[in-house]
Write a structure and sequence with these properties.
about 65% helix, Arp2/3 complex 21 kDa subunit ARPC3, 8 helices
Amino acid sequence: MLALLCISAYISIPISFLGGMLLTILNFVVAIIILAFPPKKAITIIALWLVMGVVGIPVYIGGAAGIGYLMSAVGGYTFSFLICACTIPFFTGKTFNRIRYTILAVISAFMVDLIGTAWLGVMQHYSVKTAFAYGFAPFIIVDCIKVIVAVQLIPQIRNSFLKSTV
């Protein structure tokens, strides 16, 4: 899953009216990780990915790397993945429940977008309204759709990983 997370940062669509900000499948993959794996594994995968980027391996969006990326205006979105990994898996339960998982996935999308938007606003000195317009509104619907689709894959992924560890 770590390799898939690294690759997912390269799959993106630039949004020209937002100064080239990128729409990626990162949060789709993060949702799978935080919903399919126990807390310790989810945290480890996301933390390793963050460390890989910090030490210069180009695993962030568009092949970016380094602490400078994390401290940039979009770094909050990246940090938020670890925050999701440290919270959401503790609420998944032992068995898959589509409704609970869908709610948790949508909560994770809101967490990512709200934390990223707050960071963007602070780093760019935006008003709350401007930060919301640039960092939240254009992404939240698509992000919710991505994580809801991710939920549908959780039973298959869990079964696949259980079989591979036996």
